[in-house]
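User: Can you predict the 3D structure of Taste receptor type 1 member 2? Sequence below.
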Amino acid sequence: MRSTGLIVTCVSVLLTMAGAETQYSDFHLAGDYLLGGLFSLHTDTMSSPHLSHSAVPTCQAYKLKIASYSYLRAMRFAVEQINNSSTLLPGVSLGYEMVDVCYFTNSIHPILYFLANKHSVVQLHNNYTHYQPRVLAVIGPDSSQAAVIVAHVLSLFLIPQISYRATTNELNDRERFPTAFRAISNMEQQIVAMLFLLKEFQWNWINILYSDDDYGRQNLKLLWARAIGICVALQDVIPVPRSSQLLSLELQGKIKAIVSKVVHSTAKVVIVLSLELTLPFFFQEAVRQNVTDLVWIAAEAWAIEPTLYNITDLWRVGTILGVAAKEFSIPGFDDFRVSLAEGDNGQASDQTTCNQACDQCLGAARDADHSMRAQGERIDFNVYSSVYIVAHALHRLLGCNTTGCHKRMVYPWQVVPEVKRVDFSLLDKRINFRDRGDTPNSFEIIQWKWDQPNNPFQKIASYSTKNKKLLCYEIVIVFFQFPFTQVPISVCSQQCEYGQWRKPVSVSSCCFECIDCEAGTFLNNDDLYNCQPCPADQWSSAGSEECYPRLVKYLEWQEGTTVVLLLFSVLGLIATLVISVTFAIHSHTPVVKSAGGRMCFLMLVSLIIGFVNVPMYVGIPTEFKCMCRQTVFSLCFTVCISCMTVRSFQIISIFKMAARLPKAYSYWMKYNGQYIFITVILALKVAIIVTNVIIHPPAPVLVALEDDPSIVALQCNKSYKLALLMNSSLDTFLSILCFYFSYMGKELPKNYNEAKYITLCMACFSVSGIAIFLVMSMYRGVLVTICDAMGVVINLLGISTGYFGPKCYLIFFHPERNTAAYFQTAIQSYTMRQD
Ligand SMILES: *[C@@H]1O[C@H](CO)[C@@H](O)[C@H](O)[C@H]1NC(C)=O
Ligand SMILES: *[C@@H]1O[C@H](CO)[C@@H](O)[C@H](O)[C@H]1NC(C)=O
Ligand SMILES: *[C@@H]1O[C@H](CO)[C@@H](O)[C@H](O)[C@H]1NC(C)=O
Ligand SMILES: *[C@@H]1O[C@H](CO)[C@@H](O)[C@H](O)[C@H]1NC(C)=O
Ligand SMILES: *[C@@H]1O[C@H](CO)[C@@H](O)[C@H](O)[C@H]1NC(C)=O
Ligand SMILES: CC(=O)N[C@H]1CO[C@H](CO)[C@@H](O)[C@@H]1O
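Assistant: Sure. Here are the predicted structure tokens for Taste receptor type 1 member 2:
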């Protein structure tokens, strides 16, 4: 065993050896460094080769694909141009070996040919570091499927491969395919471009057709992953015919069914994710079934396919937009494509391996010259730039300068890192693999122009991933459907009107009913499927997209009611002050004593506090004001009424109890019963108030008014009724007691008889209490506050004028009745009447 060579055995691949080398040929060019090129010059089938006998498939048996010949010529053009140039690789000649792969039918054999050495032998080694295959790098092949097959093999040998048309995302996998590069954007970019297109025209209701192969499925997956806000009306798979000549009845039936589904779909936009070979039957059927007025969006694979464009009456199906590689114009290439160089016989005789022949290519290219010139270079530019990428890599590897290069043995794996590093300008286009190992050339949007057969694929827009939108060229897109020039609409439901929310009618978010937002809610543009409630201090009418601030109402200082209220309370306050002074001056007179003596001052102080508290009902309620409203008056009133009750009771007891129950009476007098009573009542009251405050902490709240949503009342309590009930229950009990005692004493001497005054106070109390309660149950808002304040003023006035007024009257106008003698006479006459 030889240790150095590690040769286990040699496999001789028998290949037709070249005879005399022709200098110029489409398939073979001798040079110091050879590039391999793989093109589909022939294809009309998706099928694998016949597998019954072991022979390399013959591509010439299939139909000519003239576009691929143009790509092949682009490679040849690039190599010759580099060879002619004295700067890129001076003194070095590039050569090529190009093979027809007829789609992917013949993709293995050419690789073996490229891997073989000059003697057509592929050696079996354990270590290929110092193995020199025939070619240094491979350009192509075109289809994704073939590119992946080729990449599997070339990656093992670390031979750089630059695809010019394979968009599949599989090639992005740097782990699996460390040497695969591409000069075209990937599928994902194609989908992004399509989605930009949909967004531009606001089409969100679409049909998706995809071919029943890897290309269709991969694209579909990517589309689903990215299509946010796009809904699919119909998704169907187009069967892939195995032979382009014959279509089985079963497949014919399937295609008919798909076309008829597309016809009946409500969506007007059809995305077709398919390879070109699948589509002729489909579009022929579409024309046959009179499909019209649709917008078709073509995947890159068929976006610039002349054979489809050539289908009779295809213009009827509507507008065809597509995603295609960007157009660049390569100077001099149009002439080169159909030129026959000197010494170039354009015939098949120069082939060194199988499928390096195309008898009709040049002739067909010359026939199609006119339309090919009009179409411009798209994929051709990708091929052209691929060759330049390898040349620039070599330039660095060979350490070239303007005068020459260090010509030496180069192994393919040495080229790979240099390819990764290339960065140069070609026809003003910057070319490098910086962004995720991808794409010197990206996509643009084209439209099929039915009225311009010379320029069938017109570019209409490019797109920018940075700006996230289409950048239209200055070309008006004419839609080929009625009515012309109007952008067709493809939505499941029309946009809702202002202030309407979307009620979904199916699982897809694009189909919905439009319903007005209710009053008090609004439509936020972030969520079109729900109405948001307005904040508490704002309102909206039905069908609104915004809320308006409400007018906050409260009892204001300048209102008439306020003025009247304050006027009365000021008068009441003055009167109470006057009464207080009068009572202080005449504190020793019997009238004052009979009215309660020192207890009167307790009442008067309470009344003064009560009056001073009235302004708390006016102005913007604050927590403090609310607290005052809820506690002060209630407490004052209880003080007054408990004093009155005690006083009535005492008078009754003097006249009635003292005689009958002298013991009890003396106890009452001895322990100051009246003050104990008042203290107990006050303690009770304070307990009630504290409980109320705890249950309903007084704080200003906004209360919406039913009849007018634009106004909101600012008041102290939302529902005050329970608290009011609890508050007044004690007062009510006391007033009934008071009323009872005063009524009991109605036959007492006139100057002790308080019944009618107390009745007046009680009437005030009960009427105002009931009124407040009724108003609170029926209304909300400022009226409640007014009633509340009015109740307070009336009650306070009632006590100060009703109870103290008559006594002042006596003091001022009948001083003769305000004497001890007069009182004794009255008592004596009363006792005599009793006896
Ligand atoms: C290269 O030079 C030859 C002869 O000088 C010329 O015929 C040929 O057209 C050139 N090729 C290109 C691509 O410029
Ligand atoms: C392959 O051969 C090269 C040079 O002959 C050597 O440097 C390298 O280590 C070898 N690799 C392996 C895996 O043996
Ligand atoms: C298509 O239209 C033509 C005439 O306009 C009509 O004869 C033919 O039956 C139609 N085909 C279908 C499938 O509707
Ligand atoms: C288009 O059709 C015409 C005649 O129907 C044919 O001559 C021409 O070659 C076709 N072109 C292509 C690109 O297939
Ligand atoms: C590069 O240029 C230098 C002089 O500028 C020259 O000596 C040398 O031979 C040239 N060639 C190479 C391959 O470096
Ligand atoms: C193989 C080939 O075409 N070689 C040519 C490269 O270009 C120089 C001129 O720059 C020619 O002299 C070679 O014949």
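The pocket of 2-acetamido-2-deoxy-beta-D-glucopyranose (ligand 3) is lined by residues 289-290 (CB under 6 Å). Residues 1-23 have pLDDT under 50 and may be disordered.
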